[in-house]
Design goal:
Helices cover 50% and strands 10% of the residues. By secondary structure, the chain is of the alpha/beta class. The chain folds into two domains: 3-19 and 199-335, no CATH class; 32-195, Rossmann fold. The two termini are 38 Å apart.
Length: 338
């Protein structure tokens, strides 16, 4: 554990980092949308309907859902037989994909040929038909070749008169949709598709509070103020990944300042120091600051000259106005307690 993590855990009395960079199922916060997605996904897998596709922008929680699903499957090995391809390589041929598939199921076919591999896979799945066989593929948008999808279609066609021998569960970016639509023979076999959306402001609050509780936050734990939560949601646009990263960096700053309260000023300063400049995000945060600037927070020491880098596009009146609001808000925050 690095010095920064030790500082945060010690100061806030936490057992572990509540905003770690990895998708730990123990910190899975079940929003309404996540619950619905998992319900439909489990139903498709348990009934052996074949192909399920989970889509979403970067950072919307697809890998977190995948690991939650995988944790449930591995807890019942007598019922589920599962293999995972974490990130297929876009340049793979269809045979390379088949090699990866059989390897993940622990198979070693006697001869390196397409027919031998398919026969070995079929015999294996048939022998395992008392269990629910599932192949999970993360970053499935990397499968962008027609031959790759055709191979997966052939694999998914392996069946008994009663049910499919292999489920396929894909987790992919939205950019995969045109690829699917260009392969109708595969697309028509998708039994369930679900597109994840961004978190609401209230869901962002619940995510942060849940993670803090899971990490052991008690009376000494950090408190994210309402103004801070509004800025976090505006900056992250409801992205769980961005929210978690911002909160992790904000805890470190708050611990350095010896502050148990994560204020709006702390979040603004964290954005300034730890994120890339983004004019659109600046404009959204400016709107939040205009609607409710938190002027009761202590100034940072030393106070930032401005809450985060401001870049005015020539001729963009809305952005210029947003930048003015940000400067004024920063001044009020810096001098509010003087």
């Amino acid at each position: 554990m690095d010095e920064g993590s030790n500082t945060v855990l010690t100061f806030f009395g936490l057992r572990e980092q509540p905003f770690a960079a990895t998708a730990d199922p123990a910190f899975f916060c079940a929003t309404r949308e996540y619950k619905e997605c998992l319900f439909r996904l489990w139903n498709t897998i348990d009934d052996r309907h074949g192909i399920a596709v989970i889509l979403g922008h970067y950072g919307t929680g697809k890998t977190t859902l995948l690991r939650k699903l995988l944790t449930g499957m591995r807890a019942k090995p007598d019922r589920y037989n599962t293999a995972v391809i974490a990130s297929p390589i876009p340049s793979w041929t269809s045979f390379s994909l088949l090699e990866a598939l059989v390897s993940q199921f622990g198979l070693q076919p006697p001869k390196r040929s397409f027919i031998t591999y398919m026969e070995s896979l079929y015999r294996y799945l048939l022998a395992q038909r008392s269990r629910i066989n599932t192949l999970i593929i993360d970053d499935a948008q990397n499968l962008n070749k027609r031959g790759q999808l055709e191979l997966l279609r052939l694999v998914q066609n392996l069946e008994t008169p009663q049910h499919k021998l292999l489920n396929l569960a894909f987790f992919a970016q939205l950019e995969w949709m045109p690829v699917l639509r260009a392969a109708p023979n595969f697309e028509q076999r998708i039994s369930m598709a679900y597109t994840l959306g961004p978190l609401s402001e209230e869901e962002t609050r619940r995510l942060i509070e849940y993670r803090l509780r899971q990490a052991g936050a008690g009376s000494r734990g950090p408190l994210f103020e309402d103004g801070a939560l509004r800025v976090i949601h505006a900056f992250a646009e409801g992205s769980p990944r961005v929210t978690v990263t911002l909160c992790r960096n904000a805890l470190l700053l708050a611990a350095q300042l010896k502050s148990q309260r994560i204020t709006q000023a702390v979040i603004l300063h964290t954005i300034q120091k730890t994120t890339l400049p983004d004019a659109q995000k600046n404009a959204r945060i400016a709107a939040v600051l205009k609607n409710g600037v938190d002027e009761t927070v202590p100034a940072l020491t030393p106070p930032p000259e401005q809450p985060f880098p401001l870049h005015t596009a020539v001729g963009d009146a809305r952005e210029e106005r947003a930048n003015r609001l940000l400067r004024n808000a920063a001044k009020r925050q810096a001098h509010g307690m003087e």
